Every structure is written in structure tokens, then in C-alpha cells.
């Protein structure tokens, strides 16, 4: 018996390095995916914004805000819960299958409720009724996301498939866009091409998880389904509050102002969201591993992992924020065109919000949620959402899209502060040197971009020169002042002598 135990111990020790590499590999794969999430819209948005114009793009963007509410209701907070709890059942096939069926059943019920609610709202709100065809078109993503159960792949940390599938489906969506969206009146077709990638990806996934993992999600309305409702509803409430402060600015802006103003603000939020997704990519892959290690009680490993994630995040997020602030005008011009340049003030405010949002994601999604602090997350998110709505209603009539951006900044800053205060006793984070060195590099980035904007008249050239110069200068600073730590984060062992 003791020999068997020794063999198991040796096997676990051999697997440990592979698991550490797996986290890095998954982070890289997810970063590649999120980079594609940025690259594809950078390719499509300049074309779409110029073809549709601010008004028609605003129609789609406002409709998307309502479709996002449907996605939120249908999602029911299930994804984060499924990844966290499913990661603990990975080695128990029967239990995992049962778990998947129960959550899939909940997801189907919540999706039906989402459709019933949007139809009911459209009966009482006349403006929404006129946009209902666009909303329903965009909501196709909601249906297929439910059927696709992509969170199964996240439970198994299969980021290679997730990344490859996203790239292929996005290329198909890209082709459909350029083929069929040719005139200003084609905004309805654009709405369909906008969700076609998600539809295809989840259609593929419907078969993939059955073949790859032998997981067969089935609708089984049994009493056991109710046992998940408590935590799921807490997470759902958090998702509701989060979606409110993310989406309410667009919704309220569309109610108080016009489609053109929504389109202008949409250009700023598009850029903000794309960069935010890239920053958050390295955080998402850490959640299953952190959850699994919490179950094992390996708190020392958790602390080491969290410190690596936070330091890597600061190295990327700080210069990204400064670069976005200083190059916002050429970025908007390159991506959206002259008509959308009024979005530069809103993007300035959102760029500051970006840093708070990324750090809030780290403290809340990577630490608080895996540690089972859902109720506290809900409390702070509800407060943030309520403040966001009140401030939007008060300020939008006077400051228009700039008010919407400002309320986002306040909400994200509030969540960051709450997450930081709640988690400082759970884990000891060391990032002071990283922050200082990164800020020194950011100072060089700011000078480079400001000088570029001043002396390079062509906006496209200013963007290229500013970005290239920033990367080079920041890289020199990091190699000069932070070389040892960079090697440690990358897992590279330097040879002595």
C-alpha cells in the first residue's frame, strides 16, 4: 500500500510542472484569442462605421444594449459558477455529467424567460417595438450560447480549441460582413453578421463537447436543479448589476439623446471594450486553477500564482492605458473615421476607467469569486450599478456621451476600491516595484506619443510612429530596470556565470 502511495506521489510531482506550464500556455492562448477579439473589430469597424454612418450604427448599438440584457438574463450567472464548481468535478465523470445537465436545464429556462420579458417590454415601450427585429436578430447569439455550453471547455481548460474555433468562425463572419454589408440601409444585415461568429462557434461546440469530452447536456427538470439556485441567483444578481452599469449608459443615452450620439459614444466604448478584453484575457484562465487549489487548501501556491498574475497585468495594463490616452485621437480616426472624432473626450475618460476596470476584474473575479465571496461582490456591484444609473439620468442631459463615460469611470473605481479592501487580508500581494518601473516606462510612452501628435500631421502615421516608439521605449526601460523579474514571470531560468 505504501508503495502505491509513493507511486501516486511521484506521479503528482511529475504532473505539477505540466500544470504550471498549462496555465502559461492557456494564458497565451487566451491572449491570442482576445488579441483576435481586438484585431477583427479593428478590421471591421472602420468599414462598418463609414458604410452605415453614426446614425445607423447607433441603431444597431442601441439594439445591442437590449440584446445584452437578454444575454444577461439567459446567462443567469451560470458561466462563472459552472467553471468554478465544474473544475472541482473534472475527475468525476458521472458527477460532472449530472452537474452539466442541471445547469443546462437552468440555462434553458432562463433563456425562455429572457425572450418572454423582451417581448413584454416591447409591448409597453413603443420605441423598443420599432427596434425589436434588430434586437431579436442580435439575440440569436443568446440562444446558441445557451445550447453551446462553452463553459464545459473552460472547465477542461481547452483553450487551444476555444482559440482556434473563435478564429475560424470570426473569419467566416468577416467574409459575410464584407460581402453583404454595402450600403447605409444594410444595418439589419450587419446585425446578423455581427452575431454569426457566435452562432457558428456554439453550433460547432454543440457537437464538439459530446465527441471530445463525452458530455451530453440534456434538459432534465428534476428537483436537484434547485440546489444550484441559491449561488447561481447571487451570481446572476451580480451579473445584472454589472450589466446595468456597463449597458445602462448606452440605453439611457439612446432614450434621452439620439441615434447619432449613441453612435459617437459607441465608437469610444468599442475601443475601450476591445482593450479591456485583452487585459482581462490573462485573468480568466487563472480562475479554474485558483478554484481547484482553494479546494485542495494550497494557499501558498495561490499566493504565488496571484502575485504573478497581478504583476504581469500591471506590466501590460499601465502602458496600455497611457498609450490609449495619448493616442486616442489618431486611434479613433483610424478605426472610425472623421465623423466619430467627437468621441475623443469620452475615450479619454474611459481610458482612465480601463485601469480601474482591469484591476477590479482581478480582485473580484480572480480572488473574491473563487473564495466564495459572492454575496459581498453582489453588494458592491449593486451599489455601483445604482450609482451609475442615477448619475447617468442626472448628467447625460448636460454632458451627453461624456457623462456616460464619467459614470463608467466612477463605477469601475468603486468596484476596484471594494475589491482591494476586501481581499487585502486574504492574500499578500507584492507589486510595488512592478508598478514603479512600469510607471517610469509609461512616462517615456507619454512623452513619445505627445511629441508624435505634435509633429506628425498625418493621423495614420502618428498612430504607427507613436505605437512603435512606445513599445521600443517601454521595452528598453523594462529590460534595464526589471530584467530579472521579467525572466521570473516568464518562467525562464538564467544560467549562472
Describe the structure.
With 497 residues, the chain is an all-alpha fold. It contains 18 helices and no strands. Helix 3 packs antiparallel against helix 5. The protein is globular and about 70 Å long. About 4% of the residues have low confidence.
List the helices and strands and how they pair.
Layout: H1 2-75, H2 78-86, H3 93-124, H4 126-138, H5 140-148, H6 151-155, H7 159-180, H8 187-212, H9 229-256, H10 259-284, H11 286-296, H12 299-326, H13 328-336, H14 344-368, H15 374-423, H16 432-455, H17 459-481, H18 483-490
Helix pairs in contact: 1-3, 1-4, 1-5, 1-7, 1-8, 1-9, 1-10, 3-4, 3-5, 4-8, 5-8, 7-8, 9-15, 10-12, 10-14, 10-15, 11-12, 12-14, 12-16, 13-17, 14-15, 16-17
Give structural attributes.
mainly alpha; 497 residues; single chain; 18 helices; 85% helix
**C-alpha-based Rg, rounded:** 23 Å
Output the helix-strand order.
HHHHHHHHHHHHHHHHHH
- Please, how many helices? 18
- The coarse overall form would be globular
Q: How confident is the prediction overall: mean pLDDT?
A: 84
- Low-confidence spans: 4-21
Helix content: over 70%
The amount of beta strand, in percent, is under 5%
In whole angstroms, the N-to-C terminal distance is: 46 Å
Judged by helices, strands and strand pairing, the structural class is mainly alpha
Number of strands: 0
Largest sheet: none
Short structural description:
The chain is built from 18 helices and no strands. It is mostly helical and 497 residues long.
Amino acid at each position: 500500500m505504501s508503495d502505491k502511495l509513493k507511486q501516486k506521489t511521484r506521479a503528482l510531482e511529475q504532473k505539477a510542472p505540466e500544470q504550471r506550464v498549462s496555465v502559461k500556455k492557456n494564458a497565451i492562448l487566451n491572449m491570442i484569442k482576445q488579441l483576435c477579439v481586438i484585431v477583427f473589430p479593428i478590421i471591421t469597424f472602420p468599414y462598418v462605421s463609414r458604410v452605415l454612418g453614426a446614425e445607423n450604427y447607433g441603431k444597431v448599438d442601441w439594439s445591442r444594449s437590449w440584446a445584452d440584457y437578454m444575454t444577461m438574463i439567459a446567462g443567469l450567472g451560470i458561466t462563472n459558477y459552472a467553471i468554478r464548481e465544474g473544475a472541482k468535478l473534472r475527475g468525476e465523470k458521472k458527477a460532472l455529467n449530472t452537474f452539466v445537465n442541471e445547469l443546462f436545464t437552468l440555462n434553458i429556462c432562463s433563456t425562455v424567460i429572457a425572450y418572454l420579458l423582451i417581448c413584454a417590454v416591447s409591448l409597453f415601450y413603443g420605441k423598443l417595438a420599432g427596434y425589436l427585429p434588430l434586437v431579436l436578430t442580435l439575440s440569436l447569439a443568446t440562444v446558441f450560447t445557451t445550447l453551446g455550453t462553452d463553459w464545459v471547455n473552460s472547465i477542461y481548460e481547452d483553450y487551444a480549441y476555444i482559440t482556434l474555433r473563435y478564429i475560424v468562425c470570426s473569419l467566416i463572419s468577416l467574409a459575410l460582413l464584407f460581402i453583404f454589408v454595402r450600403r447605409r440601409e444594410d444595418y439589419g444585415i450587419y446585425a446578423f453578421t455581427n452575431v454569426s461568429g457566435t452562432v457558428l462557434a456554439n453550433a460547432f461546440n454543440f457537437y464538439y463537447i459530446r465527441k471530445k469530452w463525452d458530455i451530453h447536456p440534456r434538459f432534465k427538470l428534476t428537483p436537484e436543479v434547485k440546489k444550484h439556485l441559491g449561488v447561481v441567483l447571487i451570481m446572476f444578481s451580480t451579473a445584472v448589476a454589472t450589466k446595468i452599469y456597463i449597458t445602462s449608459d448606452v440605453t439611457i443615452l439612446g432614450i434621452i439623446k439620439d441615434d447619432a450620439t449613441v453612435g459617437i459614444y459607441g465608437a469610444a466604448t468599442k475601443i475601450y471594450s476591445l482593450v479591456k478584453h485583452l487585459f482581462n484575457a490573462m485573468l480568466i484562465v487563472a480562475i479554474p486553477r485558483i478554484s481547484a487549489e482553494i479546494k485542495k487548501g494550497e494557499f501558498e501556491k495561490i499566493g504565488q500564482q496571484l502575485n504573478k498574475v497581478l504583476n504581469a497585468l500591471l506590466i501590460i495594463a499601465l502602458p496600455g492605458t497611457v498609450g490609449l490616452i495619448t493616442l486616442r485621437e489618431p486611434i479613433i480616426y483610424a478605426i472610425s473615421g472623421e465623423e466619430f472624432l467627437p468621441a475623443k473626450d469620452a475615450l479619454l475618460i474611459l481610458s482612465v476607467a480601463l485601469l480601474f476596470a482591469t484591476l477590479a476584474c482581478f480582485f473580484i473575479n480572480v480572488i473574491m469569486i473563487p473564495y466564495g465571496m459572492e454575496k459581498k461582490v453582489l453588494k458592491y456591484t449593486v451599489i455601483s450599478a445604482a450609482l451609475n444609473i442615477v448619475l447617468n439620468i442626472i448628467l447625460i442631459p448636460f454632458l451627453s456621451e461624456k457623462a456616460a463615460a464619467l459614470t463608467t469611470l466612477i463605477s469601475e473605481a468603486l468596484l476596484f476600491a471594494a475589491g482591494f479592501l476586501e481581499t487585502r487580508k486574504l492574500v499578500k500581494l507584492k507589486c510595488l516595484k512592478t508598478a514603479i518601473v512600469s510607471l517610469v516606462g509609461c512616462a517615456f510612452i507619454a512623452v513619445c506619443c505627445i511629441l508624435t501628435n505634435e509633429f506628425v500631421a498625418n493621423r495614420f502615421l502618428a498612430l504607427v510612429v507613436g505605437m512603435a516608439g512606445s513599445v521600443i521605449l517601454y521595452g528598453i526601460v523594462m529590460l534595464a530596470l526589471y530584467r530579472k523579474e521579467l525572466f521570473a514571470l516568464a518562467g525562464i531560468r538564467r544560467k549562472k556565470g
